[in-house]
Design a protein that fits this description.
Helix content is 38%, strand content 14%. The protein is α/β, with parallel strands linked by helices and 407 residues long. Strand 2, helix 5 and strand 3 form a beta-alpha-beta unit. Bound molecules: pyridoxal-5'-phosphate.
Length: 407
């Protein structure tokens, strides 16, 4: 397969101008849209006309011109036919699963996923008659074993959160095809770096709150899929996005559009620094996990999945053993070394760090946490790109030595 260059695809196939020829798109702040010929309106309701079918808009919970510009940019990056932006990553995930599954249906999901998605699958969806069996993402056979006659969906994240296992997307795609299932991949951790649709994913969901926006100032999500599936989500009578209503505000869409031109540059810098920090920690014998390190059990797999010249992601973990040691490390890194901030989330320009077991993965019960290898002392770091790399390397080395993580 020819390697993909998402930056090139984005700017060579998509360039949107403002309505008066502005070099940036206009913000279309209208909740409703007029038609010249009254006969056009029923055609929009029937799905015969839409943003890509005659440039027709109806109402901004359906499609909005500015939000649609962002959708087209993201679908170019992710290599899918179409996309729809949503108010959050969680709404992108929940609407996708509710569109694909009815009461009585079953999902096979990776067991190392975002805490909110885990809670959705384990607690909320069963109340609606949709059940999930969790499988080990490092073991494709465990997905196959979990498939039932009622299974509709295979769900996983490109890089498992927070244990950083790598999902074998081509293998899961083969399995999904063989069994007639839909493969949904959450690519929040790896925009530009991995293109799951090119590796066989049917639907790619992301939280744009993280790297894609990159400034930690908005909550946003996106569903990338076939034109047919997006129109199903937006169907005026049955569409899950249309009827549950997690609409993106056009002003938020505009802000994210302004940050896309430097997404590739940011990802490259995030990844390069994460690699340098992981290498330094590994060299001094600190308990670091990072998919780009040759010591990572799935280093070959991630190498076979990434687009060239971006790196291997910006997330690494340090296993401090206990929650107390983890808290001490984070406290030193934030309050003494000024290395980063103790905060959940990722994809910010500064480094963000949190103790996953007692924060973003606390929805996962302790017994399940140990089953998936989530240590109570695991510190997840989303490496930023502010400050000089040399200074950052010195800061983290001093901190791990002070906590006694290396002898
Ligand atoms: C943050 C996150 C989500 C949820 O996104 P929101 O924008 O906060 O709703 C889903 N999946 C992953 C992997 C995430 O990191």
């Amino acid at each position: 397969m020819k390697p993909l260059n998402p930056e090139q695809v984005l700017w060579e196939t998509r360039r949107e101008f403002g309505e008066h020829g502005g070099v940036t798109p206009s913000i279309a702040r209208s909740s409703t849209f007029t038609v010249i010929d009254p006969a056009t309106m029923p055609e929009i309701f029937q799905g015969l006309r839409g943003p890509d079918k005659g440039g027709c808009f109806l109402y901004s919970r359906h499609f909005n011109p500015t939000v649609d510009v962002l959708s087209r940019y993201i679908s170019a990056i992710e290599g899918t036919e179409f996309a729809v932006c949503t108010a959050s990553g969680m709404s992108a995930i929940s609407c996708t699963l509710l569109q694909l599954c009815r009461s009585g249906d079953h999902i096979v999901s990776s067991d190392t996923i975002y805490g909110g998605t885990h809670a959705l699958l384990q607690k909320l969806l069963p109340e609606m008659g949709i059940t999930t069996t969790f499988a080990d993402p490092a073991n494709t056979a465990s997905f196959e074993k979990a498939i039932l006659p009622s299974t509709r969906v295979i769900y996983a994240e490109t890089i498992g959160n927070p244990t950083l296992n790598v999902t074998d997307i081509p293998a899961l795609s083969k399995l999904a095809q063989k069994k007639g299932l839909t493969l949904v991949i959450d690519n929040t951790f790896m925009p530009m770096v991995v293109t799951p649709a090119k590796l066989g994913a049917d639907i790619v969901v992301s939280s744009m709150t993280k790297f894609i926006n990159g400034a930690s100032d908005v909550i946003a999500g996106v569903i990338c899929a076939s034109r047919d599936f997006i129109y199903k989500l937006m169907d005026l009578h049955t569409g899950r996005v249309m009827l549950l209503g997690p609409t993106m505000d056009p002003r938020v869409a505009y802000d994210i559009i302004q940050r896309l031109p430097h997404l590739a540059i940011r990802m490259r810098e995030h990844c390069e620094r994460a690699m340098a920090i992981a290498e330094r920690l590994h060299k001094i014998g600190a308990p670091v996990t990072y998919p780009g390190l040759p010591s990572h059990p799935q280093n070959d797999l991630i190498k076979s999945m990434v687009n060239p010249r971006y790196g291997y992601g910006a997330i690494l973990t340090i296993d401090c053993g206990t929650k107390e040691k983890a808290e001490k490390l984070m406290s030193i890194l934030q309050n003494k070394e000024r290395f980063g901030h103790i905060a959940v989330s990722l994809g910010f320009y500064d480094t963000l760090m949190s103790c996953s077991g007692s924060s973003t993965s606390s929805e996962i019960p302790p017994e399940d946490q140990s089953k998936i290898g989530l240590s109570p002392g695991l510190v997840r770091m989303a490496i930023g790109y502010t400050g000089s790399l040399e200074a950052r390397l010195e800061q983290i080395e001093r901190a791990v030595r002070m906590v006694g993580l290396v002898s």
